Fold this protein.
Amino acid sequence: MADAYEREHMPGVGAVLLRRKVTSPRWAIGLVMGLPLVLGLAFAAAAAVSGQIQSALGIAGGALAFSAVMALVMVTFATARVAVSEGELHVQLGFAGPRIPIGEITSVRVAPSGTNRMGMGVRKQLDGTTVYTLWGDNARAVHVERAGGSKLILVCKEPEAIARAIEEARARRVAPGRARIAADAEAEASLADEDAASDPDVERRASAKP
């Protein structure tokens, strides 16, 4: 079920087929934030004991500043979300990420994640492929190819479920505007049939045919 953030910022296009939310564990957040601070304060204490007060103050200040920056980074990027709807694949790491129309997806498959197996973050490969790694040790990933040749690799838990949802969205073919165009064409065809049925000339021509 969608939370308040997803309802507002990731509503999807058409029916939502799958939602996935991954949050970095608290111990990992604490480790990334606390380890630099502890090490910095330890070096500062060692400098103070040796009489280098100015150096100790500089080291301690640097450690505090670095820890604050890491805290901001972890708070921002601690959560990753995936939403697959009938019209789009929406991926967010932190507060940003791609919104890919389902109509632009040419293929999707599950394959090994390779060197992108662990961690959390986003990176670009040399061939232009964008890799989103959701938290954890994930041996397999969702490989998405788009029209034009660009690729997206989504390293996450249970990639098969995400791939199935994308395939289902592709099968439904409800990209923005497509359903409306189909409905308009159907309506025009229906009106043409009604006009033909009510036109006596059409009926006479039809009955005159051998």
